[in-house]
């Protein structure tokens, strides 16, 4: 499959986004580049849409920088090419019978400066993340560790956190309660080690390539506001698995330019997670079968205020959910590249492949609405308002669903767009009937979604809904040791959530990009973060 240069170029010209700052290579020049350069198959050329932040694991805040951190650092475990957790710096993991104590046994590994990687480096790094002065955005991911949250909020000392280096090669971690997904979450950059000796001597080590120290498959050799370059780390414990010699991240702050560079063989990748592809280019890229699409653990949904009539009634909530035509929304507004949602859990973790209800089920929706209105003792619905934060994207979806509800249910719905801060405040205070919301999972486990609705007073549950049986199932899933039985418990919980419908799923998020046809074995996780450890250009 070859890049569709002429088609993409024509598309960009027709939409007025052809960028003259990027030189257009002729066909002969492109052919010359491909045949005369014997080293390009060992070099991966990438583009960042934003200038890089601080190149330290605790400071990474988005998918792009998480991906960059994967090149320079390695954790206790790593997600392999098959998407499953595999041992990395930890060659063995012991778990106590009560599943609250994890003991990680480290292999012989080195930092890029030759220092040994030790359990002390992990303890030091995790406590550094939890230090209130660090102000790490993702410190909450460590809260499953005993006393971690209290230490992060200044209520306890860092020495009281349940992570301890028993010796140079043994790390013991105590949890607040059994956490089935704990091993997987330690693959995230926030759990990466920091060279304690280097950090204590030079706290700003990560600001300069000359002083930067990592333990990953690649090491940093240069970094500024315009470019990051990493090369294969010959001291990496698993260097035999690393096929590429160099990764170059150029800062190109325009998505059209990024695609144009890819189109002209000046880069090997365009789109997620380092930027976005131009929306107007997606149909052509998809038609020519060069668009790469992958589901991630994210959902776009509408929540109901279940403490305010008429949405105190589950049948009415379900009527509004069933009356949505998600496929039409995806085809017309989302370029057919998102996934219509008929369940609460995204494809990366779903427990019921076919969902819990039929999309655009107009007859059932009408029937449920009539029954719900009767149960409430009403003759018709009160005025209904759908709220969303100001955004062209949210507006178009809201207007489409507004028309669908009118057509199927005969209901007039008023749209209310608000500034982000006002919107959040109104949601928090229950000043809404239906509201747009979404969720991106921090870890690829159903509990990350289902726990949102466990308690009506929970920080992430603004629907006012809770269910005793639902709570019991989630509590049982925490202590269930058998993974299949645990899945069954979580599936039962999701079924209750979809039967009660405090939220109506609209679509599941996907990530889109284009890549060199020769590029193989790139790992993309549930968040859309990529790992090039095993990548090669054949």
UniProtKB/TrEMBL annotation:
Residues 1-25 form the signal peptide. Belongs to the bacterial solute-binding protein 5 family. This is Peptide ABC transporter substrate-binding protein. The lineage of its organism: Bacteria, Bacillati, Bacillota, Bacilli, Bacillales. The keyword RNA-binding does not apply. The keyword Oxidoreductase does not apply. GO terms for cellular component: ATP-binding cassette (ABC) transporter complex; outer membrane-bounded periplasmic space. One of its GO terms (biological process) is peptide transport. Gene3D superfamilies: Dipeptide-binding Protein, Domain 1 (3.90.76.10), Dipeptide-binding Protein, Domain 3 (3.10.105.10), Periplasmic binding protein-like II (3.40.190.10). It is found in: Cell envelope.
């Amino acid at each position: 499959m070859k890049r569709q240069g002429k088609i993409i170029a024509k598309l960009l010209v027709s939409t007025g986004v052809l960028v003259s700052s990027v030189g257009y290579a002729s066909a002969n020049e492109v052919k010359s580049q491909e045949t005369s350069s014997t080293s390009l198959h060992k070099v991966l050329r990438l583009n960042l849409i934003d200038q890089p932040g601080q190149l330290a694991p605790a400071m990474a805040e988005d998918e792009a920088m998480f991906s960059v951190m994967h090149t320079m650092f390695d954790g206790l475990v790593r997600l392999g090419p098959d998407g499953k957790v595999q041992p990395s710096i930890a060659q063995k993991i012991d778990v106590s019978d009560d599943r609250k104590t994890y003991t990680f046994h480290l292999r012989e590994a080195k930092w890029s400066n030759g220092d040994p990687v030790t359990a002390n480096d992990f303890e030091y790094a995790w406590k550094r993340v939890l230090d209130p002065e660090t102000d790490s955005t993702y410190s909450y991911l460590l809260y499953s560790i005993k006393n971690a949250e209290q230490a992060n909020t200044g209520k306890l000392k860092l020495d009281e956190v349940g992570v301890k280096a028993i010796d140079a090669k043994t790390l013991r971690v105590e949890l607040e309660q059994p956490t089935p997904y704990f091993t997987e979450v330690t693959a995230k950059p926030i759990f990466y080690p920091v060279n304690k000796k280097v950090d204590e001597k030079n706290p700003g080590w990560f600001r300069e390539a000359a002083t930067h120290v990592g333990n990953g498959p690649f090491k940093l050799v240069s970094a500024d506001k315009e470019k990051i370059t990493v090369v294969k780390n010959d001291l990496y414990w698993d260097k035999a698995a690393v096929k590429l010699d160099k990764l170059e991240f150029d800062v190109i702050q325009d998505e059209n330019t990024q695609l144009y560079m890819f189109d002209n063989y000046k880069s090997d990748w365009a789109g997620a997670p380092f930027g976005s592809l131009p929306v107007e280019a997606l149909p052509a890229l998809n038609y020519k079968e060069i668009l790469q699409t992958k589901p991630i653990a994210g959902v776009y949904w509408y929540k109901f205020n279940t403490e305010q009539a008429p949405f105190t009634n589950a049948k009415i909530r379900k009527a509004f959910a069933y009356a949505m035509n998600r496929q039409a929304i995806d085809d017309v507004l989302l370029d057919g590249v998102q996934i219509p949602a008929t369940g609460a859990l995204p494809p990366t973790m779903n427990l019921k492949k076919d969902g819990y209800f039929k999309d655009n089920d107009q007859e059932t929706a009408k029937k449920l609405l009539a029954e719900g209105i009767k149960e409430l003792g009403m003759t018709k619905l009160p005025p209904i308002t759908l709220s969303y934060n100001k955004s062209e994207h949210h507006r178009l979806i809201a207007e489409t669903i507004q028309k669908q509800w009118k057509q199927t249910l005969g209901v007039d719905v008023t749209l209310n767009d608000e500034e982000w801060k006002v919107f959040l405040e109104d949601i928090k205070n229950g000043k809404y009937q239906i509201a747009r919301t979404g969720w991106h999972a921090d870890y690829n486990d159903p509990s990350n979604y289902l726990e949102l609705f466990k308690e009506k007073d929970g920080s992430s549950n603004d629907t006012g809904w809770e269910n005793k049986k639902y709570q019991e199932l989630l509590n049982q899933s925490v202590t269930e040791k058998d993974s299949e039985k645990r899945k069954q418990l979580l599936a039962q919980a999701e079924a209750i959530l979809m039967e009660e419908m405090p939220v109506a799923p609209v679509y599941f998020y996907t990530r889109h990009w284009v890549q060199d046809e020769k590029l193989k074995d790139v790992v993309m996780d549930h968040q859309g973060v990529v790992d090039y450890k095993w990548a090669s250009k054949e």
